[in-house]
Amino acid sequence: MSIAVAPEVAAALARGAAVVALESTIISHGQLPSTLPFAADPLLPCTRKINNSERNSIRFPFTACLPPSPGMPYPKNLQTAVEVEAVVRETGAIPATIAILDGVPHVGLSSEQLKRLAISGRQFQKTARRDIAHVVASGGNGATTVSATMFFAHKVGIPIFVTGGIGGVHRHGEQTMDISSDLTELGKTPVAVISAGVKSILDISRTLEYLETQGVTVAAYRTNEFPAFFTETSGCQAPCRVDSAEECAKIIYANRNLHLCSGILIAVPIPTHHAASGNIIESAIQKALKEAEEKRIIGNAITPFMLERVKELTGGSSLEANIALVKNNARLGAEVAVALSNLQQREAKRIGRSAL
């Protein structure tokens, strides 16, 4: 399989410099709004109200105008993507956003490619590992999720990937078997994932149990408790704790040298100055969970119910907290990538001297 690696990314990897992988689904996907841009040319601004019957039947070319993520219409999503890449650069690493363009996997996107992704939105298929072969074979466009991003990152030798949060075991997962492919990918792909944990909409304790079964090293950053995305606490003890980027780098380095062939999850709590809004969102999640239980909503129906209800209860206020989380994770991810690069170079020099 041919993978197009951006020259800047390829050069950084060749010299052993710090590189951080970023997913593209966070830029492109979300829910349809009630006011839809409607134009034959997707770049022309025009809107009209759409009804419910139209929402599920709209097809190209009109979907090019769709805002790609909840509460983050174009160009807000593009601005966020650029800012996250800038955080990585400012911290000393090279960002490599991953996506499939016209059937070709790309590791590292140009500004024009990022813009295309942001504008196209849901025209890009949400692509997990299971979808890669189909999207590539059909010459399609894919926005990579955690599992697909990890796969391509590992293929080209990027050891660190930053995202907002990972998927997990869904509530009542013991009945529905609704378990994110993110977890199995972590079990078989040696990439370190920096995230804010998992949302409490999921079953966090079972998610941690499943990660243990998969042999995944799970560490919490500067805390003993596994974070729950919008809140610093989940009630679940983290298997281990790390307090610096250097400690994270040492675990990644040891994992690689031992050929464990499994991933690492480094869970980072929400920044303190965003914890207040995070607590409001978490309260809404807990209220929605209680309503779902009272209405006996289970299985595949619970996730769409929860997402819609939390959005109603918070008035969409989760957006800024979500962006802040990703930027915070990007900063730490870049710091870890730099620390890992430095560690590898020191060890290479040491081995070289001992061989003399």
Automatic annotation (TrEMBL):
One of its GO terms (molecular function) is hydrolase activity, acting on glycosyl bonds. Keywords: Glycosidase, Hydrolase, Lyase, Manganese, Metal-binding. InterPro entries: Indigdn_synthA-like, PsuG. It holds the Pfam family Indigoidine_A. Signal peptide: none annotated. It comes from the Eukaryota. PANTHER family: CARBOHYDRATE KINASE PFKB DOMAIN-CONTAINING PROTEIN, ZGC:136858. This is Pseudouridine-5'-phosphate glycosidase. It comes from Urochloa decumbens. The lineage of its organism: Eukaryota, Viridiplantae, Streptophyta, Embryophyta, Tracheophyta.
